# Entry
Amino acid sequence: MSGTYNLFLVALSLLVAMLASYTTLDLAARIRVLETAGLRRFFWLLGGASAMGTGIWSMHFIGMLALRMPMEMGYDVRITVLSLVVAILSSGFALHIVTSSELSRRRLIVGGIMMGLGIAAMHYTGMAAMRMQLAITYTLWLFVASIGIAIAASWAALWIAFTLRDSTQHHVLIKRFGAALVMGLAIAGMHYTGMSAAIFRAGAVGRNANSVNGNLLACVVTVTTLFIMGVTLIISMLDTRFDERTLQMTDSLEKANKQLLSLATEDTLTGIPNRNAFMEHAESAITRCQQSKRPFTIMFMDMDGFKTINDSLGHSSGDKLLQAFSRHLIRSVRRDDVVARLGGDEFVMLLDGMGERDAIERIARSVLARMQEDFCIDGVPLRVTASIGIASYPKDGETVEALLKGADLAMYEAKHKGRNTYRFFEATMSEAAARTLQIYRDLGVAHERGEISLVFQPKFGMGRELVGAEALMRWRHPEMGDIPPLEFIAVAELTGQIMQISDWTIREVCRQVKQWDAAGLAPVKIAINLSPEQLRQPDFVEHVQAILVGWAVRPERIMFEITETMAMQDAEIVAGVIHRFQDVGFDIAIDDFGTGYSSMAYLQQFRVKQLKIDRFFTSGLDDEGVEGETIVSKIIELAHSLGMVVVAEGVETSSQFNKLKELDCDEIQGYLMARPLKPRDFEEFVRGQTRSPDKAGAKEAVLPSFGSAVKTQGLLA
Ligand code: C2E
Ligand code: CA
Ligand code: CA
# Structure
């Protein structure tokens, strides 16, 4: 018995086969790109296998439906589904082979056989699903031929898919259409060969309950398949577009990055290279000079007192000065040398090929000499100087960092040696200098970072009543820890940073006084230490007055301490300053008395309120013998004869206290009574004091205790 073919369905089956092939090829290319993207690849592989499997299977199915038999036909649903699963599995397997990195000959052969067998298995499983009143037998050679065609078609398909998978050019579409045509024909060829191998004989299996109607099935299968493949293709296209967009975005991002990079290599204010760019220049100089064994030199420059100029004339003038300075530097060097701004008023020059001392010195001198000419900023002629530090490769360092540090240290040394000069790096400018240098650098930002604070050390009368307090600066450095005020103040004085720091102290004391007042604390007179630089300022007293007026703090609330050494150095000038201070209502104390050489005449002339005996003499009171005691006694006598109140500093023991009392000292300050206290602790301390009034004569400690900050030893042991 034989049937006839419905030509429309045959054409449809061929179309489906080609569409399935096209989809598969498209997906193969897609999956290939996703090679490394784990999960995404897996899902595309799954989707691809489903689309391809469904495609091949439905081609086969439509092909079978195209065969019209002169009787009713049906299909066993379970076996039909099984044939679909077989199709999907073998498609998945094929796709996996095609999209993995290499397709060896062996792989192609084995893969093709597996796939071909898969398709054949699918076909014959599908045939077995047929339910009709006919029995099927197969013509052997046609059966074998159909399997052979399946395998050959699979080989061709795998090979084509593999060669096309990487193509990204546009004519790949045409190639892919061609390949899809071949593959579609091959798959269809296998099917129809397989069909012609079948011989249907009457009287076999009947329709069973599980079977479904063939025509309905044809519609469902075709529509579903077309839908699945359409969706797959659309998603694939969208995904490609998405990838292209990502590619475009990456592209423009790269461009933006490049622009940023060029911005990041130029100092915006002066237009010369910035630190980053300089580091790169220096790195490549090292690489170059390593090979050619040539030296090069780095000069580190810093304007002297730039901060003061910047603060007094304003930032825009400061900016113009920096621009003028950078132009000046460029004029001082050769065309190939690099001039860069590291930040602030710090500049560096890289002098290529230069290592000889004389030549370097000539350049340094010429930079300094040119500075002698005035810079004209906003019509104001400004005379600025610079300090220069010099380090050469490879003598002074073999890395950019080492060279920069060396030049920096040398520059600092130049500042130390009186500014407006240059210094060559020497190995002796080592650790200590490096520490000083770091203090110098970080002091500039310490205030902004809130690392500097004030503590207050109470002063007492001999009856242990609170009579005042001294404000002392504290700097907690994030890396270096607590830095003693003597250390950083010395650096600040050297570098000209002291004015900013000192101003801050005065303002901060005012602010604190105001805050305590507002909190209802009993008023305590606060002493502020002055440094020599401040006294040298022409309008210093007026300046201080202005600050106090700004904070509405009365002069009686503040006193100033001037060290004996400071006072005697410029005694005439200091006497003038002291008198002006006194005229406007401030008290003055001579600090650290006994450590310098005092002129009686000046001391008389100053007419200051207080004289503070240096703690060296206080500690001398504990020594054996009477010598220490005699000196202190003499100082007290002298002070009293000049009408001054005597304060003993650094009182640590009760015996010192007792002797000072015997010697008629007026006030004491020291760890025995209280250590310098944080503002909050000081406030509590003062409150405690005012609650427990004078208890002179008590045998035991009577000071309220404030944690570990306050020592409360017995006073009258
Ligand atoms: P100074 O003015 O003589 O301050 C007293 C110093 O002695 C403080 O040291 C204080 O903590 C310490 N001291 C107080 N009682 C005792 C004690 O019983 N035993 C011992 N061994 N030491 C005691 P500090 O705070 O380290 O200050 C050192 C110096 O730094 C001060 O000496 C002062 O000259 C200077 N200084 C501190 N703050 C400022 C400031 O704001 N401006 C200026 N210009 N100088 C300041
Ligand atoms: Ca002091
Ligand atoms: Ca002192």
